[in-house]
Design brief:
With 438 residues, the protein is α/β, with parallel strands linked by helices. The protein is built from 14 helices and 17 strands. The protein folds into 2 domains: 135 residues, 5'-nuclease (Rossmann fold), CATH 3.40.50; 223 residues, Rossmann fold, CATH 3.40.50.300. Helix 2 crosses helix 3 and helix 12 packs across helix 13. The two termini are 49 Å apart.
Length: 438
């Protein structure tokens, strides 16, 4: 069997610190330039820094087994080596002063030496350059899902008229031959008569039950389509401890989550407070580069949350109350810590008990970041992850590899999790046109 030489780009290690053990009984090659780039990231107080430090510690552990320049066996199988010999290879058309090109030079040198080389990178441009040099390339596939077949949270099933009649007459129903996930919704459609239907929700054991009528109006907002109605069912059920909502702009993900949170905390007193957070990815810099203290910095980044809070508090106020009064109500929620806004940077290490947690724009998080956040949940806490996989600002994530879609697929069979994909934009006709055509 021909041994494959997997040359890893730095971004693979920064994306997943366990990636070096993911290539079976083959040889994993880290160019010296990768080690230098890890050194630059190791002091960062974010996910990239954490991953860099973890990889460096693992390499130091492997060093105890022998010389890394010659290759050492890993606990997971296969061999790892740090290659500095190929760094002097000249590659046609590439500037060797660029670190990425020096990494490619290692793969190119091994290829010229007759090895079967596969260059692994999350950087599309680096993969294009490697392919142009005749090097086999691939993305890092671990923790990826098939986005085109992503679990939607509901399905349509045609049933005989007597089955639909039995569903309306009974509190619960089992449909012969129907295998469903816990908390999945099923649109039961009468065979030959699509105008007659009913929406059921699945419990464990393939049992279908009715949705609760009390969720038709939440914090003075009513769902505008069946997906929004299903989402509210999950958002208001304390037994569903993790809810994932996927949808394009204008589908109502954040508005529904915030409305359900206000209803759960203020009306039902199920949780102590609402904690809302968003990743700071698109700014390109940490909060420290914005003026003011932490709250003032967060105010800029959390403006979409303020907009939703202002809207919800406004429709829940009397017609005689003006805009200033609504703003004071929002300020009171924040001042009394009923609603707390927090950067994801500060959530790591915390234990979050008895809170309703909303993580907006979760499509910009890696699977490991999602795991880190969800694992912060203490007793009595409910978490909601919302996002649009079509709008990803993290350069090394896509619709198939981001933490939100990964969580949807990995957790779909668990009764503590519920998911809905929202497809119809309800913000405005123009927003719907933009989401569908642009």
């Amino acid at each position: 069997m021909t041994i494959k030489y997997f040359v890893l780009d730095t971004n693979v290690l920064l994306h997943n610190s366990e990636s070096i053990g993911s290539f079976a009984d083959n040889r994993v090659v880290l160019p010296m330039s990768v080690i230098e780039e890890l050194d630059k990231f190791k002091s960062h107080n974010d996910e990239l820094g954490r991953n860099a430090r973890q990889v460096i510690r693992e390499l130091d552990h492997l060093r105890d087994k022998g010389r890394l320049s010659e290759g050492v066996e890993m606990d997971s199988g296969g061999t790892l080596m740090i290659d500095s010999e190929q760094d002097g290879v000249k590659v046609p058309g590439l500037d060797m002063h660029v670190p990425d090109n020096r990494i490619l030079a290692v793969a190119y040198g091994l290829l010229k030496a007759g090895k079967r080389v596969i260059f692994v990178s999350k950087d599309i441009n680096a993969r294009l350059k490697a392919d142009a040099l005749g090097i086999e390339v691939q993305d890092f596939e671990k923790q990826k899902v098939n986005f085109d077949e992503l679990y939607s949270g509901y399905r349509e099933v045609e049933v005989p008229a007597e089955v639909l009649a039995a569903f309306y007459q009974q509190e619960e129903l089992r449909v012969e031959g129907l295998e469903v996930y816990p908390n999945e919704f099923v649109l039961l459609i009468e065979e030959g008569n699509p105008k007659r239907s009913g929406i059921a929700r699945a419990r464990e054991g393939n049992v279908l039950v009715h949705m609760q009528n009390k969720h038709d109006n939440v914090w003075q907002i009513r769902p505008r389509n069946k997906e929004q109605r299903m989402a509210l069912e999950l958002l208001l059920d304390p037994n569903v401890q993790l809810v994932t909502l996927v949808g394009q702009a204008g589908t109502g993900k954040t508005l529904l989550a915030v409305a359900a949170a206000l209803e759960s905390v203020i009306t039902f007193n199920r949780y102590e407070r609402i904690l809302v957070s968003r990743p700071i990815i698109p700014l390109g810099k940490d909060l420290g580069y914005l003026p003011g203290d932490k709250d003032e910095k967060l105010a800029h980044w959390m403006q979409p949350i303020f907009d939703n809070l202002t809207y919800l508090m406004g429709i829940n106020s009397s017609k005689h109350e003006g805009e200033e009064s609504v703003r004071l109500k929002v300020d009171k929620l924040l001042r009394e810590h009923i609603v707390e806004l927090e950067a994801l940077t500060y959530i790591r290490g915390r234990s979050i008990p008895n809170q309703y947690v909303i993580v907006d724009e979760a499509q910009n998080l890696t699977p490991h970041e999602i795991k880190t956040i969800v694992s912060r949940a203490g007793e009595g806490t409910k978490m909601v992850l919302t996002g649009d996989p079509y709008q990803i600002d993290n350069p090394y994530l896509d619709s198939s590899s981001n933490g939100l879609t990964y969580a949807v697929e990995r957790l779909k069979a668990l009764p503590v999790h519920g998911h809905i994909t929202l497809r119809k934009s309800e913000r405005s006709d123009l927003a719907a046109v933009a989401a569908g055509y642009l």
